[in-house]
Amino acid sequence: MNDPALRQIASDISLISIALLGVTFILLSIAWRGFLQRWLTMPREQRRPLVRASFIMILPILLPIVVATAVGAYWPTLVQTSYILVIMLLAVIATLYIVFVGFRKLFRYLLRKQGEPVPIKLDGTSIVYSCALMLLAIAVFCNAFALLGTINTAMDINIGPFQPENFNFARWLLTDAVLFFVGGMFTTGYAYLDDKSSEWKTSKTKEQVKEEKDKEMNAKQKMEEAYKIWVFSWLIWHSTKSGKLDYSQLPSNFSIESENGAITFKTNIPSTEREKLAINGVIVTTGVCFTAFDSAMDDIFSKDGKSNPAQTTGLLAARVIVHQIRNAYAHDPIHPKWYVSNSNHQKTFQIDEIDLAINLGDLNNKDFKIEHINGPVGIANLLNYCLSNVEENAS
Hints:
By secondary structure, the chain is mainly α. 71% of the residues lie in helices and 5% in strands. The strands form two sheets. A two-stranded antiparallel sheet has the order 1-2. Strands 3-4 form a two-stranded antiparallel ribbon.
């Protein structure tokens, strides 16, 4: 039979553990919902670095508590000494890590290469949610074992290895559970409030929503008009090449009058030059079309992601390719040339939906050819892909 006073203490600890478990599960559900929402929308290549960064963040908290618990359960007089030694060890590791990272960044800066991979930027709130999940999960683990370590004493029964001599260990685990719970509570609260504050900042009035919708509609109309102009230029070229456009029926010259006067154009174009001029019209309207698409998508989507893309596939890849084609035409609309000055764009971008893959780094400073993007069909597919994404965004 256990001492009644000891049984009372064990009962109190068991009740605290049960109550703490209930509250911890409530916070755990909040942290899980916030984390899962971000995890599912996160690019796959960011997931492993996120978990690694979260573990590194909680390690300085986890290590001293684990050491203090293990030492305190079996050698209570050495707790303070062990805690100080662990803190000193963490300080040494942190100092060496800072020096190592500093030298690594210095060498990378000195030996940097054009077109090297862009470091992955992790979302801060996602890291906080991940840390909250880890802390709360450890709190649940400590609570469960604290309960197992005291329930036999509280109920005066034997449960496997958990005998009264394990009671001190259970008390330490309950202390750990409280510490991890407090850490998880603060991190969950911070992440939750950060999420809500972002929603408040991005909340818009009806007038702002209407203004943005009008802006999107105008941008979409601009893209549609540019696409029609491009298609019409191909119609002129096709009709000229196939002889369906009878130039003999066209006037040799014509005049345009306006408030500022009149001007006369001579159109006596030799038959040998007509097809060349028609294809030049296609080349010029292609540049106009991509310029309009690039500007319109900047109005609809954020400009930030395009200059330093986190992904090299999908819509973001399409926006980068459209932007670089626009740059090629900006320097010489008749003889366009790839000019990929942004090192973040000097890599391979791929759009699986239209079977397009293009290495912009290899094409830098080379003459632009429509074969680089799968010819006229590739251009049409790329433009229609952008239009379909704009329509989906509007809906």
